[in-house]
């Protein structure tokens, strides 16, 4: 007898009936860039994505909820930047104000606050800098790890006070999850989850984001604290395990597309929810190819996001969230 798998692929109804992987807007997290101006400013390297005013960020949250997307993640772009990124943990910082406004207007939406300093420092790094003895060139300067922990913890507490539902530390500092957990608990926010950027690579795919946030490093590079793309599985497991032990409530892999094997590994090894970050460069590649007529945008986006879920993602941060939600609803 011939085995005939094609029988179950014969019609749209049969294909839908036997699908193992389901993609749904509830799995999406919509990223929002918030600046301190009153306008909406398109980002040239990310077609369809803009920097939003606080009022416009509120409307983004409303639209997300209407599309069935339950969460937004906020990235702040302050007018003033300095060496210590003080606007990241200012009580009246742009993310703190945006969070209050969104929670007041759209209380049902879950607000995730990106907890980092790179968007707020004048040098574009994720904490205060220190010189590395005996090094030169791009490796001569790096982030001073332990002083950064205090600032990241202050940032998380200020975001929690503003009403954030989740804080998401992305600086890749050793011990950051433990420092933030202790600070949140000490300030009475024992209920607040930490979405850790546990496995975050020093990736070329971040280029459009750095353009959007003005966070390209002015000196040195991030290779000394973000992970080596060729580092392998042992390093990924070590980073994820450390964050889980320190109190992370979810684990993130960033970028997603080139690291689906790592995402799948974390899904097998940990019982925490796993988040995929479908980053700016991945988004921009599809947009550019679609604009040139090389690829079908809808099919490519939905296939890409389905692949992330198949690899083990419970949630996906994606700039495609609005479009993908509309396409899924239309199906």
TrEMBL record:
Record's keyword terms, sorted: Heme biosynthesis, Lyase, Magnesium, Metal-binding, Porphyrin biosynthesis, Zinc
Catalysed reactions, as listed in the record: 2 5-aminolevulinate = porphobilinogen + 2 H2O + H(+)
Residues at which Zn(2+) binds: 116, 118, 126
Record-linked NCBIfam families: PRK09283.1
Protein name as it appears in the record: Delta-aminolevulinic acid dehydratase
Entries under Pfam families matching the protein: ALAD (PF00490)
Transmembrane segments: none
Annotated organism of origin: Deinococcus koreensis
Tree of life domain: Bacteria
Record-stated family: Belongs to the ALAD family.
EC annotation from Swiss-Prot or TrEMBL: 4.2.1.24
Gene Ontology CC terms: cytosol
Binding site for 5-aminolevulinate 2: 280, 319
């Amino acid at each position: 007898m011939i085995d005939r798998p094609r029988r179950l692929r014969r019609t749209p109804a049969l294909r839908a009936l036997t699908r193992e992987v389901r993609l749904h807007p509830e799995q999406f997290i919509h990223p929002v860039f918030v600046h301190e101006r009153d306008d909406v400013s398109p980002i040239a390297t990310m077609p369809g994505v803009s920097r939003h005013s606080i009022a416009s960020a509120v409307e983004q949250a409303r639209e997300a909820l209407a599309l069935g997307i339950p969460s937004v993640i906020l990235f702040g772009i302050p007018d003033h930047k300095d060496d210590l990124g003080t606007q990241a943990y200012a009580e009246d910082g742009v993310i703190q104000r945006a969070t209050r406004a969104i929670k007041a207007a759209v209380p049902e939406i879950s607000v995730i606050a990106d907890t980092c300093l790179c968007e707020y420092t004048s040098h574009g790094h994720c904490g205060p800098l220190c010189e590395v003895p005996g090094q030169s060139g791009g490796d001569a300067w790096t982030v001073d790890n332990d002083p950064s922990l205090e600032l990241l913890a202050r940032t998380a507490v200020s975001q929690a006070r503003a009403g954030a539902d989740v804080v998401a530390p992305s600086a890749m500092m050793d011990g950051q999850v433990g420092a933030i957990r202790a600070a949140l608990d000490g300030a009475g926010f024992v209920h607040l989850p930490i979405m850790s950027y546990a496995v975050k690579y020093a990736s070329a795919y971040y280029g459009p984001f750095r353009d959007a946030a003005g966070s390209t490093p002015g000196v040195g590079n991030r290779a000394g604290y973000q992970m080596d793309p060729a580092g392998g599985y042992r390093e990924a497991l070590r980073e994820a395990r450390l964050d889980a032990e320190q109190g992370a409530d979810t684990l993130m892999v960033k970028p997603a597309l080139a690291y689906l094997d790592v995402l799948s590994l974390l899904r097998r090894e940990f019982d925490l929810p796993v988040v995929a970050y479908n980053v700016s460069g991945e988004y921009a590649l599809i947009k550019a190819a679609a604009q040139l007529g090389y690829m079908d945008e809808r099919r490519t986006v939905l296939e890409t996001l389905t692949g992330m879920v198949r690899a083990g993602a419970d949630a996906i941060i994606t700039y495609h969230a609005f479009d993908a939600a509309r396409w899924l609803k239309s199906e």
